[in-house]
């Protein structure tokens, strides 16, 4: 089963990442991060 990693740069310029089990969860997190000021938000698929 694949899992998904969301990577982003926070408002202080620190690169962060978090793993999610479903694409829906990762997409929800990406949208939330973009609304709250994160930059360069990316979703990666881990096989």
- End-to-end span in angstroms? 7 Å
Report the strand count.
3
Molecular shape: globular
Strand-pairing-aware structural class = alpha+beta
Task: Describe the protein's architecture and organization.
This protein has one helix spanning 23-35; strands at 3-9, 15-20, 39-46. With 47 residues, it is an alpha+beta fold. The protein has one domain (3-46). A three-stranded antiparallel beta sheet has the order 2-1-3, covered by helices on one side.
Offer a quick outline of the entry:
The protein is α+β, with helices and mostly antiparallel strands and 47 residues long. Helices cover 28% and strands 45% of the residues.
Layout of strands and helices, then pairs:
Elements: E1 3-9, E2 15-20, H1 23-35, E3 39-46
Antiparallel strand pairs: 1-2, 1-3
Sum up the structure in keywords:
alpha+beta, globular, three-stranded antiparallel β-sheet, 47 residues
């Amino acid at each position: 089963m694949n899992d998904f990693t969301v990577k982003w740069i926070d408002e202080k310029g620190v690169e962060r990442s978090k793993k999610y089990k479903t694409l829906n969860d990762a997409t929800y997190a990406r949208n939330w991060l973009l609304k709250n000021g994160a930059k360069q938000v990316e979703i990666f698929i881990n096989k």
